[in-house]
Amino acid sequence: MEEFSNGTKTGSEYRLVLLGKTGSGKSSTGNSICGEDIFGSRVSESSVTKTCQYAETCRFDQDLSIVDTPGSFDTSTSNDVIMAEVTRCLALSAPGPHIFIYVFNVLSRFTKEEEDSINQFVEKFGERVFDYMMVIFTRYDDLRRCSTPPSKYLANLSPSFKAFLSKCQYRACWFDNTLTGSEAHKQVQTLLGVIGKIVEENGNISYYTNKLYTEAEKMMKKREEEIINDEKKNKNEMSVLKIREEHIQKEKKSKEWRIRDIERRLGELEKAGKGGDGSRNFRRISRSSSEGKTMEKEVNFLCREMEKIKSNDLKMIEKQQKEIQSLKARLSKKQNKGHPRSVARRELSRRNSPLSRVICRGIVALGKHLLAGFVGLLLL
């Protein structure tokens, strides 16, 4: 599972789930939508995307969360691994996708396997999914090279694909994933316009949801709250460290000031204890007068005090400062950067993370019969 984040979340987000069989161009389309190469893609007979991948980006002032689903799994892949990936797909788009995008390569044909998988998906998730589904036709550049307009291409589609497209209310976009610059941007803007219209038409229920998505959202919300609480605790600990750091800094300055004061006083005593030839005469004074003995005692006391400050106090302060810096560095690493949902998604993207395991267990326990429809569509 991979993730990418680009831009700052504004609070308004479209959640997109890319569906389609191996070779349809899901990952390339995801890259075109993001405007950067985020999802792994290459021309191959086998699926490049073996696990769910997701990206968070901002295009034309619109936040987007995109989930690129696996096109296929190796035959050796266990059912548990497949289920784990399916549940991650659900949770990454929780509380539900605004749009399921069925990606279709114009050079391929709509197979019976695809038709059966879609039917199984609709059977489990309900006809309502068509209110949240559209088609992106990829390899539009090949159609143009053949001088085939979209209308002629659509007229020649198989009856089964026409029926599917009809249920999607003929909502479709044509993508040339080789485009760059303004032309590439334009097709993304067209797509966002279609999605915006779908969201508007769906009104109060602007995104698709069901029991599985509701359960996934509960878990994601719980993790968000934990992240927020952890962040508060982290900030409090940082504040305490800051106060300690300021206190220690003041103490250090006080000790340094005391050293300078002692040095100044020693200078005065040295000056007072010098004879006419400029040499020390503490011992001569100490032997001849009580004043000299007092001066010598003060000098010894001050020297011992300065040595104690340098060898003990300042070293202890330096040790405490290093400990605080180490704690601050540790807390900085624990700081969650970005929106709590984005942080939760990043955690979820790590296959063996605690959050991933919890969500997998929770959703699978809720309904394997519903998951079967999603599994069928992802394993094309």
Alpha-carbon Rg, integer: 35 Å
What number of domains?
A: 2
CATH architecture of the largest domain: 3-Layer(aba) Sandwich
Strand fraction band?
5-15%
The stretches of 5 or more residues where confidence is low (pLDDT under 50) are: 1-8, 42-49
Give the oligomeric state. single chain
Our measurement of the CA-to-CA distance between the termini, rounded to an integer number of angstroms, reads 19 Å
Counting DSSP H or I runs of 4 or more residues, the number of helices is: 13
Spatial strand arrangement across the major sheet = 2-3-1-4-5-6
Topology pattern, helix = H, strand = E: EHEEHEHEHHHEHHHHHHH
CATH domain topology of the largest domain = Rossmann fold
Number of strands: 6
CATH class of the largest domain: Alpha Beta
> Average pLDDT value?
85
Q: In one word, what is the shape?
A: elongated
Question: CATH homologous superfamily name of the largest domain?
Answer: P-loop containing nucleotide triphosphate hydrolases
What's the main sheet like? 6 strands, mixed
- Structural class by helix and strand composition: alpha/beta
Helix content: 55-70%
